[in-house]
Design brief:
Length: 200
């Protein structure tokens, strides 16, 4: 586990997986545009917490449970698809920032973001590939799994922060309510499109 090659391999894997488009990054872009980076931080930390717990759970046997009882996996797919469509509608129907405060709009909370990871298909793919490809076999399983998940999420923080920052930069370019509505609808449709990864 202490070899430089192992650390670099996990870091590169984290960059390639967490830095590419997916449900989390689409929602972070929308949140960054609507609320700014600082107010999006709970969403970011929620993603990291949820993925850490998910990856740890997969390493400790949750993935094997799904292989044994496929109905559980199918149930999570249905819940994940429904929740993702709900989030897509919330994003698409969000008012421009000037009106959001009046409507009581707020970014996704840390707990909501953390819970979403358990029905996020990309998080599952990342976790299974991470554990299968990089979990060391020597030493205590729980320690190895925790170190692996922490390294993955430590690198992922910077990658997903870039998406929120990208959204914040876009938000500064949207100067009219019409432009904001078009952006929100686009982000909502992009989020809804991620359902295809679940139901296929």
């Amino acid at each position: 586990m202490t070899s430089l090659g192992w650390w670099l391999s996990v870091a590169l894997f984290s960059i390639s997986m967490s830095g590419t488009p997916g449900p989390n990054n689409v929602m972070l872009t929308a949140s960054g545009a609507l609320y700014g980076y600082r107010r999006t931080l709970p969403h970011i930390f929620g993603i990291m917490l949820g993925c850490f717990v998910l990856f740890l759970s997969i390493a400790l046997g949750l993935g094997a449970l799904f292989e044994r009882y496929p109905l559980i996996q199918q149930g999570l797919k249905v819940v994940g698809a429904a929740y993702l469509l709900y989030l897509a509608w919330k994003i698409a129907s969000a008012p421009p920032p000037d009106f959001a405060a009046r409507e009581g709009a707020r970014p996704l909370t840390a707990w909501q973001a953390a819970a979403f990871q358990f029905v996020n298909p990309k998080a599952w793919v990342m976790g299974i590939a991470l554990v299968a490809g990089f979990l060391p076999h020597d030493g205590p399983l729980i320690v190895n799994a925790a170190v692996l998940a922490l390294l993955m999420e430590g690198v992922a923080f910077f990658c997903i922060s870039l998406w929120a920052g990208f959204g914040m930069a876009i938000g500064r370019l949207l100067t009219t309510p019409r432009a904001w509505r078009a952006f929100n609808v686009t982000m909502g449709l992009a989020t809804a499109a991620c359902v295809g990864f679940i139901v296929r």
